[in-house]
Each structure stands twice: as C-alpha cells, then as structure tokens.
Amino acid sequence: MINGKKVLLVLGAISAMNDIVKNAREKGYYVIVTDYYENSPAKKYADECWTISIDDVESIVKKAKERGVDGVMNYCIDPGQKPYQQICEKLDLPCVAGFEQFDIMTNKDKFTQCCKEFGVGFIPEYEINENYNDAEWENIEYPVIVKPVDGRASKGISLCKRKEDMADAIKYAMDNSKRKKIKVEKYLDCPEICVKYVACDGEFYLTTMADVYKCYKPDGTKVYLGTQTYPSKYMDEYLETTHKNVLNMLKSIGIKNGATSMTGFYDNGVFRFFDPSLRMGGAQDWCIANAASGVDISDCLTDFAMTGSMGSQEVIKKIDMAIAKKPSALLYFDIGVGTIASFEGVEEATKISNVTGYHVCHSVGDTIKGYGTSDNVAIRFIVSCNTTEDLVETIEKVQKVIKISDTEGNNMIISPFEARKNLLI
Q1: Cα–Cα distance measured from residue 36 to residue 24, given in angstroms and rounded to the nearest whole number
Q2: How far apart are CA 133 and CA 112, in angstroms?
Q3: CA geometry: angle at 296 spanning 330 and 324, to 5°?
Q4: Closest Cα to residue 288, out of 396, 391, 214, 423?
C-alpha cells in the first residue's frame, strides 16, 4: 500500500485510457502507469508514472515489488497482452488468464487451429514450408495476404497480387514477427466484422458486434480501417449460425475472465475469423457497450485486478447483446501522408448530442509516412443513439466540423465515412 491505498499498476498510457485511470483513482486506489513514453497522455492523471516499456517484464516486476503493487491490468494495449500475464505470474497477482490462453489469443496460427476444431470459420490458407521456397509460390492462387502469425496493429501485412510480390512480403512479415513465422491466406473481398465478449467466472456475454468499414484513397490504396457501426447488420445470422460454436471454443481454450475479441469476414453466409485478442479494444468500444447496458467493462477489469473478481454475474450479464438496441459508431477520421499542422472542430464536435467521447491518436507536428497501419487514424469519436436515423445525422454533424490540415494547408482527411449510404440505403 501507498498512502494507505492499495496500488494498481496500469500497463500503457494512451489517451483512450484517461478515464480508466481517473475512475480507478476515484475508487480509492493509488494508480501507477507505465510505458516507455515520458509524456504519454494517461500519465498526467496517475498518482505515479514510470518510464518503463511494458515489454520490459523484469524491470517492471522489480519496481512493482519495491512499490508494493497489489494489482496489475492491461486494459486495451495490444502488445501488452503477454507481458501482462508474465508480470502477474511473477508477482503472484490475479490475471484474467494463463499463459496458454494468451498464447492462443495472440498467435493467429494457434487460434486458427482452434477454429478448425470447433467448427468456427477461418480464412483459407496455403501451406508453405519453413524455408519459404519460391517454388511453392507457383501453386498459389493470387491475390493472397502474407502476415506474421503474431503481428499486431496491421503491421507486417501485405497484399500480394502476383508471385513476384512474395519475397518482399515475406521479408516484411518476418521483420514484424517475434516467432519468425508467417501465414499466407486467401485474400477475401468481403464485409469485415468484429465480435466481442466479456467473460466472468467462465460465462461469456456478447458485448458488441460491429461492421468494420475500410478507408481507401480515390486511387484504391487502402489507408486503414475505417468507421465501425453497431449492431452489425449480420448479427442475427451470427447468433443463429456461429455464436454457439464460438462460445464452446472460448470455453475450451480455458478463458474464465476478461474481455475478448475476434475480427473476421462475412463470406456469403460464413463468418471467417482471423484476428483474436484477450483484451478490450483500444478504440474505446467498451464505452459503446456501457451506453447500451450500463455495464463498464473497464471497471470490471479494475475490480478483477484488485480483488480477483470481475463482479456480480447478475450485473455483468446485463451487457449480453444489449448493443442490438442501441445504434452506435466508432467514427474514424483517417488521414494521408504528411505532417499535421492543425486539428479544428474537436471541442465543437464533443458538444454535439449523442457524441459520448473521443480519442485523439496524433498531435500537431506528428508526421504520417505511409499507409496501411493504425498510424493513419487521426481521431475517433464515440457515438451512441437510439435510432439509425439519429446515428446518421450525428455522424454527418461531426464530419462537418472536423478539419485536419497539413503544413501546406491541405486537407489530410481521406474518404469520410458515408453514413447515409451505408446505414440507410
């Protein structure tokens, strides 16, 4: 304890976690936040800050023992998943899952094997040997996606339209793989979806299911993921055909507590998943689930870190499928290459009815050097409404006031989400 308070160590300090840190302090905990950036946004709301990378497990464990840490949590940081489990194990503190569960949910090849065993759809893939012999590339039907099995945040991923693209794609994937292992998957041009659950003492509840739109430049270059809307237009079909098998798979993996997610495609009646995780989403989608149900998953995770319990089943189960009655969106503003000179309209947008939050991903002076990663996301707004019509109108109001310019005065926003076309027509 410090100053008579139990001590919570939070891994990561992105601005999406500002309210999490504030809320934990309001609960009466002494909150320490760590990552390798000295001025990470959430650090200014903590009682104490460390400049230790979340990957530096041994240094964190040593410091945590010195400071008498009582609980640790990785709320929504993608690369924080495995270090979180290792830190908890070394400190003998509550962790939402063990090594095996995190190993499966952070390695795409191991997750795919689980999908096969439980009748859950997965992306068709090509078997290639460990030497990645170019003779095998002749037997591949292009286009394909080449990716690291343990990559995160879309880094290391390439679209190969022909055999000649493979060598560079494999090198890029290997450079972004700690395991030095890759996957070659069939390229699917299908609607993308993301399904999320929260687990409490081995019982799972569906928190959100989103349609994930992509953002493209006018020339067809993919910028990154775009706006996500809730509930997915495919939710009823998912519940009828796939939900039960997914629940059986997650329970078999051995997950008992925490937040999980699976990104996939809707492929002509088949839900095919490819990207799992054992954490909340970094885009604050837990706020959308909270608006629909009154259950804040981040609070449940704080409680677990400090008590070993997610809370009451009776309370948490209120989140189950509540999103079906609350049209919502994570409204993305993706930007192109250049140096950011100004953000305009952010404060005005936050005052618009039905806008419940936002997450600024960049600062003035940041330079965007390419396309295809989370670096292309400038800002996201959380929008929760009672009708689809209200959702469309709110999105359009926000889009009218947000302006992001580069140092030459050019508009950096690329292909704003077409809410009316995608949600009403």
Answers
A1: 21
A2: 23
A3: 55
A4: 391
d(CA 316, CA 204): 10
Side-chain-side CA neighbours of residue 197 (13 Å):
23
What would the pLDDT profile of 91-125 be if each residue is shown by its tens digit? 999 999 999 999 999 998 899 999 999 999 999 98
Contact 54, 31 (CB under 8 A): no
Please choose, from the candidates 250, 259, 206, the residue with its C-alpha nearest in 3D space to the C-alpha of residue 20.
Answer: 259
Residues 6+ apart with CB under 8 A from 420: 392, 396
Q: Which two tokens stand for residue 241?
A: 């055909």
The angle at the Cα of 202, spanning 198 to 204, to the nearest 5 degrees, equals 35
How far apart are the C-alpha atoms of 111 and 252, rounded to whole Å? 12
For residue 107, what is the DSSP state?
-
Q: Label residue 278 by pLDDT band (50, 70, 90).
A: very high
Contact of 137 with 130, CB cutoff 8 Å: no
Q: Which tokens belong to 199?
A: 């687990």
Omega before 94 within 30 of 0, i.e. cis: no
